[in-house]
């Protein structure tokens, strides 16, 4: 069997859109895909695992990595830094594995500049009302934080046109299957981007 060049997939969604859960689902169903774990300065939420969901670091450590030019992308979102180390992309690619990144729209556009062949997938909530219910249901943010996240979601949704694919997350199982199908289709593509 001929194995093509490893691919980079970027999953973005507004907070509460399900991108993290979808990425976890993809890792379970798609052999040969490595999830790139981002760094963040935000506090760990209940149930999140250190060095699995995120590498939780201090702001000082994050800023040091910026000065070292260690990031492929980074951004400040709601007063917290998030970023993807270059090595978290390059090492799996050299090992012949596809890489999936769970990052916001700012980071996705930075990745597309560095890696123009990256495939961008935007996860859409069925509606903003559903998104609000999900954010409230998480019970991790204050009303003020939820309002900020919803305002940010309105802005992020305007970036969908910059993505290669859009998947509506009205059912987690269906959304994972659709993203899996995108990965399979891109692996089979004869003419690469």
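^ Assign residues to that structure.
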């Amino acid at each position: 069997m001929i194995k093509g060049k490893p691919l980079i997939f970027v999953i973005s969604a507004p907070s509460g859109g399900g991108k993290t859960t979808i990425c976890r689902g993809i890792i379970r169903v798609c052999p040969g895909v490595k999830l790139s774990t981002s760094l963040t300065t935000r506090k760990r939420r209940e149930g999140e695992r250190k060095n699995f969901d995120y590498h939780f670091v201090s702001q000082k450590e994050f800023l040091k990595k910026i000065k070292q030019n260690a990031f492929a992308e980074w951004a400040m979102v709601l007063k917290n830094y998030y970023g993807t180390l270059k090595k978290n992309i390059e090492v799996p690619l050299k090992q012949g594995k596809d890489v999936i990144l769970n990052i916001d729209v700012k980071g996705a556009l930075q990745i597309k500049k560095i890696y123009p062949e990256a495939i961008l997938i935007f996860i859409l909530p069925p509606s903003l009302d559903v998104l609000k219910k999900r954010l409230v249901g998480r019970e991790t943010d204050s009303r003020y934080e939820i309002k900020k996240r919803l305002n940010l979601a309105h802005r992020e949704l305007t970036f969908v046109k910059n993505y290669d694919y859009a998947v509506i997350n009205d059912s987690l199982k269906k959304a994972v299957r659709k993203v899996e199908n995108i990965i399979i289709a891109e692996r089979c593509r004869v003419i690469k981007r």
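The mean pLDDT is 89.
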